[in-house]
Structures are given as C-alpha cells and as structure tokens.
Amino acid sequence: MPIKVLAREVISKIAAGEVVERPVSVVKELVENSLDAGASQITVEAQGGGVNLIRVTDNGSGIPANEVELVFHRYATSKIDTLADLERISTLGFRGEALPSIAAVAEVEIITQAASDVVGTYLHLRNGTIVSKEKRSRPRGTTVTMHHLFRHFPARLKFLKSPITENSHIANLLSQYALAFPEVKFSLSLDGRLTLHTPGNGNLRDVVAQVHGLEVAQQMLEIDGADQVPSITGLVSPASLARSSRGYLSFFVNRRWVRSSLLVRATEDAYQGLLITGKHPIVSLNVSLPPQEVDVNVHPTKTEVKFRNNQTVYASVEKSLKKALVKAPLPRVTTATPPPTSPPSLWTLKSNEMTSLPILRVMGQLASSYIMAEGPEGLYLIDQHAAHERILFEKILAQRSQQKVEIQGLLEPITIELSPKQEEILKTKGEFLSQFGVSLEPFGSRSYLLRAVPAIIKEGNLAEAVMTLLDSLTSDEGILSQEERIAQSLACHSAIKAGDSLTTDEMRELMKQLEQTAQPRTCPHGRPTMIHLSSRQLEKEFGRTG
Ligand code: ADP
Ligand code: MG
Question: Residue 104 pLDDT > 90, yes or no?
Fold first, then answer.
C-alpha cells in the first residue's frame, strides 16, 4: 500500500483506543472531569460491568451552553492554553481527549448547566456525531451518560473480562479517588447496588473506614511529612496490620492516582524488616510537589508520572513513613528464612521430569524450613511450606469435587469489614465460596459475619484468610482457575510455615502425604517443592570422579 495520511475517522478511533481501554477508563475520565470542575458531590452508576451503561453526575461548574458542542472536539480543553501551561499542570485532565474518545466508542448523552446560564444543554451523540440537541434545565453541574461501550468494536468487547471483574475495577477506582479527595462526597452503585458511599467531610480516616473497614481505619498511622520536600501526607498501616497483596498500596501525586514503582519501592524499603516476606502494608499516600517538578504527560491515561528528581521523592517518602512507623507499637518478632548457604549452581532442579517420588528417608530439618532427606539418587531438600501447600491444595479440590468439604462452624461469629472491591466479589461469588465452606452473612454496611470456615483452616487469623481469599479472586491473571485459586489461597494460609519446627514424625507424615499427591514436585504456583543433589554431583563436587 502506498504511504498516505490516515482518514480523520481512523485516526480518532486509534486515539480513542489509547484513552478508553475498558469500562473503568470511561469512569476514570468522567470522574476526573467532575473533580476538575470543582464538584463536591460525585455519583457514579454502572450497569453490566460498565459495558451497558456508565453515568457520572456532579455538582461542579457545569459547561456554558455555547461551549458544550466543543467539548466533543479532539484537543478541546479549558484547562491549558499555552505550551508553558503543559509544564505546570494542576488539573487532572489537560489533553482534551476524553469526551471525544468516549463518544468515538460508545453512545453518549450529556446534560449540563453552568451557573451563568438560565437554562442548561442536552446533547446526544452517536458515533461521535450529535443526533439531538435541546435546552434542558437542571441544577448547576453535569451528567454524562454512556451507553453500549464498544458496541461496534467486537474485537475490543471480546477482550473485556467478566462483568464481575470490570465492576471490581470500577469499585477500586472509585475507592482510590475517594481516598485522594476526602472532601468530596462519592457514591457508587453497581447494577443498582450501593457499593461505596463516602461522607465528603475531608477526613481521610473516614474514607479509609468506608474502603477498608473501621478496624483498619482505627489502626492506621498518620504520616506527618507535610514539612518535607516534597510533602508527604496520608495514612499507613502499622507493621502488625498487613495484607497478602500489593493491592492495598495507593499512591497519589498532587492527588492524581498513579502507578509508580518508585513509590512502591520507597514504601517497601520503609517497612524493611518489619513485615514477613510476602506481606504488604495498607497505604494511602499523597506526594505533593510543585507541578513543574513532575511530568504527567507520559501516557494518554495519565496514570504514569516522571519526577524531575527521583532521589528526593524517594527519600522524602521513605523518611516520612519511617517516622510514622517508629511511633507504632512494636511488631511481632518474625522468623526470617535464611537463604541457602550453598551456591545455587550446586543444585539440580528436577521438578517436572518425573512426577512420582522415590522413597525418601527423613534425616532432619534445616533452618526450621526445609526437610533434609536421603533417597536412592542422593540428597533431597524439601521446602516444608510448599510441600504442605501442595498436599492441602489437592485435598481441598478433592473434597470439593466429591462434595465432602469439611466445614467448621464458629461458636462466635467473626465480624469482617470488606472493601467495595471485596464486597463485589463476595456478592457474585458468595455461593461459590460456600461450596468451599466459607459462610459470610451480611451484617450492616459492608460488614459481614463469618459463621463458618473450611475445617482445613485450623488456626491463624480467619478474617485475614477470608480477605486474602476474596482478593485472590479479583484478578483474571495467572494460570489457575477460580476453583484452584480458592484452593491455593486456603492451602497457603493453612500450610505449615517456614520457621515452624517439626518433629521427625511430623516430617515423615508430611513426606508420606506428599508422595500420595498427583504432582508432588511443584507447589500450586508451579514452584518446586524440592531440590535434588544427585550422588553423582556430590562426587563431582568433592573431586571423586574424573
Ligand atoms: P480535558 O479534561 O483533558 O480538558 P475532556 O475531553 O475530558 O478533556 O473534557 C473537555 C472539556 O470539557 C474540559 O476541559 C472541560 O472544560 C469540559 N468538561 C468536561 N466534563 C466536565 C464536567 N463534568 N464539568 C464541567 N466541565 C466539564
Ligand atoms: Mg478530562
């Protein structure tokens, strides 16, 4: 094909694809517009995972009648003017791409009224063109309604995940913005269910209570880094309150929700030595710095930022977090797992070559974490946690498929407070979870009573086990099915930990059970349960051969 400049229609579809990847992208752009318009109240409704309908209503500035049509032109914005403005962006939007992009991939209706106008404007667009325009009154503010996302883009539609997953992304997004703007009253309803509602009283702890539950909110520590450059504010969890995923880390830069590996690193470094491996804090943190010090014009979705000076941002975050954490009560002492002392090259990994295990003779335990055993082919070192995880994983799946799940009712039900995202998962997966023995009963706003758990969870923090379980169901990524993810999460929680001392009998029993599993050589994640040093390799290492 000869080279030619693409038709405008094609260009606009390509550009729209960068802004609107999935339903949550539409919600994000509309909510950002409402915040930029100074709204103190923002209501979001979504239906069918946000594919059928998304509606965002605000009480912000509204759009003057003579400008409404303009907002659907690409690169039409009221937020920046000159090139110099691009260097000091203080609004969430600035690219003038959102509304035209949404109108390019969905049907859009807008009703808006500015304070200066006596009557408002209604516009209806299909395929990016206005199909009707009327005068309509409403209180000051704007309502944008989107219908049938990607109706004419079957390829895009196919890439979307289930409505549950799309809903959980929307719930998460709204939670993030609510955390960034405690003075704004947010409400979210998904398929008619009120999922999130914040008071809008400016108190971050109150928003945390709505998002993560009252118990978490009460324990969170205030970051007092307002005097630092850049200034850092927000709430962080004490080391005694941790979660099993990074999903509870929220970062904002000048109140823009961002993904930043730098901020993750600075935070994790501040918690260094305070958390068990695999545990992560709950963090809601805003970095505030002059707009010239940060570039937000990295990607059309504006979720990535570049700092002019990475080092000062890193140092400021780490320092203010450490300052907050020293004030916290001392964390429990945790046993760290020492790294293997021999160079890894010594060990051969034979994880998938044969499935069944040879008969192994237990010789002892190393670092309270590994079982040393002798077999016909040399020395075996078994990771006790991974091995037990494999055993429990298969047991849980077997019990479920035979409908013989052993359930343990709790004498005293435990109250659990769920995040909007977790609640979404529970609403749609509750039935499914009960097949595994987890019984949760609604108990007021976002509170649930845990009445029964699978008997396999013998001890530990049951509430945390259930939360981790819900979190494990929120992502579509990974190789495990939903059943397997539940089994894996329960197995991981209940398995013997690294650092637990075992008697010889316990180790023998563990090895016996491991031998009976279908895949004894890998844990449910596919990592090896054991490493093997063959007799021949031993001879070689000791210079006995050749
Ligand atoms: P951007 O936010 O990058 O300027 P958008 O396409 O999102 O681009 O919006 C275009 C313009 O429409 C904005 O600059 C703003 O002037 C106006 N606008 C959009 N949504 C609202 C709203 N909810 N309230 C007031 N004005 C709005
Ligand atoms: Mg915008």
Answer: yes
